[in-house]
Automatic annotation (TrEMBL):
It is a multi-pass membrane protein. The lineage of its organism: Eukaryota, Viridiplantae, Streptophyta, Embryophyta, Tracheophyta. Residues 17-222 form the Sugar phosphate transporter domain. This is Sugar phosphate transporter domain-containing protein. It holds the Pfam family TPT. InterPro entries: EmrE-like (IPR037185), Sugar_P_trans_dom (IPR004853), TPT_transporter (IPR050186). Keywords: Membrane, Transmembrane, Transmembrane helix. The chain crosses the membrane at residues 60-77, 83-101, 144-166, 205-224. GO terms for cellular component: membrane.
Length: 272
C-alpha cells in the first residue's frame, strides 16, 4: 500500500509541476523550484528532527540567491497558478523525502523502490493526463495523427524519463533530498551556460554573476557537508570505541534505529 500511495503522490507531483509551468510565467515557475529547498529543510526539521547547521543554511541561501539572479526574470502572479505552485512544492518535497525515508525504512535499493512504484505513477498520469489536457485545450490527444518522427521522439522522451527517475531515486537514496535539489540547480546553471554556448541565447552580466554566485554556493554546500560528515564519523567511532567494553550493541546501530524510527513516523503520518 505504501508503494501505491507513493507512486500516486509522485505522479501527482509531476502533473502539478507541469500545470504550474502552464499557468505561470517562467520566472514564477523558477521561483517555485527555488522554494522546494527551504520547504524540504522545514519538513525534515519538523518531522524527521534533522538538524541543519548555520553553515549549511548559509550555503543554501547563497546557492538560491545565485540561481534566482541568473534565472528569475518576470514574476507574473495569478491565483490559479499560485495555488498550483504551492501544491506542486508540497507534493514534490514530500515525495522526495519519502523517496529517502522509504528506502531506509524498508532497507530497499533505489531500483527496487522505483520498480515497485513506477507502475502506479505511470497509471495515474496515463488516466489523468488526457482528461486534464482535454479540459484545458478542448482537444483529444488520442485523436491526433502521430507521425513516425513524433512517435520516435515520444519513445526517446520515455527512455530519458526512465533514466532521470532512476538517477533521482539513486541520488536521493544515497545522499538526501536537499542534496538532490542542489544538483538540480547545477543543471539549471549548465542549461543557461550551454544555451549561450551552443544556441547563442541572450546572455547578460546578470546571468554570469548569478551562475558564479550559485556555483560558489554549491561549493560551500559540498565543503560543509564533507566536513560535517567527517566530524560525525569521527564522533561515532569515538563513541563506539567507548561503548565497546560496556555494551555489545554498537552505537551506530542505535543511531540507525533512531533515524529509522523518525522516518517510520514520517511515512506513517504522510501515507496513513
Amino acid at each position: 500500500m505504501d508503494c501505491i500511495l507513493f507512486g500516486i503522490l509522485n505522479g501527482v507531483s509531476i502533473g502539478l509541476l507541469n500545470l504550474s509551468l502552464g499557468f505561470n510565467s517562467i520566472g514564477f515557475y523558477q521561483m517555485t523550484k527555488l522554494a522546494i529547498i527551504p520547504f524540504t529543510v522545514l519538513l525534515e526539521t519538523l518531522f524527521l528532527k534533522k538538524q541543519f547547521s548555520q553553515k549549511i543554511k548559509l550555503s543554501l541561501f547563497v546557492l538560491l540567491a545565485g540561481v534566482g539572479i541568473a534565472s528569475v526574470t518576470d514574476l507574473q502572479l495569478n491565483f490559479v497558478g499560485t495555488v498550483l505552485s504551492l501544491l506542486a512544492i508540497i507534493t514534490t518535497c514530500v515525495g522526495q523525502i519519502l523517496t529517502s525515508t522509504i528506502q531506509k525504512r524498508l532497507n530497499v535499493s533505489s531500483t527496487q523502490l522505483l520498480y515497485q512504484s513506477a507502475p502506479f505513477q505511470a497509471a495515474i498520469l496515463f488516466v489523468s493526463g488526457p482528461l486534464v489536457d482535454q479540459f484545458l485545450t478542448r482537444k483529444n490527444v488520442f485523436a491526433h495523427k502521430y507521425s513516425s518522427v513524433v512517435l520516435a521522439f515520444i519513445i526517446l522522451s520515455c527512455i530519458i524519463s526512465v533514466s532521470v527517475n532512476f538517477s533521482t531515486f539513486m541520488v536521493i537514496g544515497k545522499t538526501s533530498p536537499v542534496t538532490y535539489q542542489v544538483l538540480g540547480h547545477l543543471k539549471t546553471c549548465l542549461v543557461l551556460g550551454l544555451g549561450y554556448t551552443l544556441l547563442h541565447d541572450p546572455f547578460t552580466v546578470r546571468n554570469i554573476i548569478g551562475i558564479l554566485v550559485a556555483i560558489f554556493g554549491m561549493g560551500l554546500y559540498s565543503y560543509f557537508c564533507v566536513q560535517e560528515n567527517k566530524k560525525k564519523q569521527s564522533v561515532d567511532l569515538s563513541l563506539a570505541s567507548q561503548m565497546k567494553d560496556r555494551d555489545s550493541t554498537p552505537i551506530l546501530s542505535m543511531q540507525d534505529k533512531e533515524i529509522s524510527h523518525e522516518a517510520r513516523k514520517f511515512c506513517n503520518y504522510i501515507l496513513g
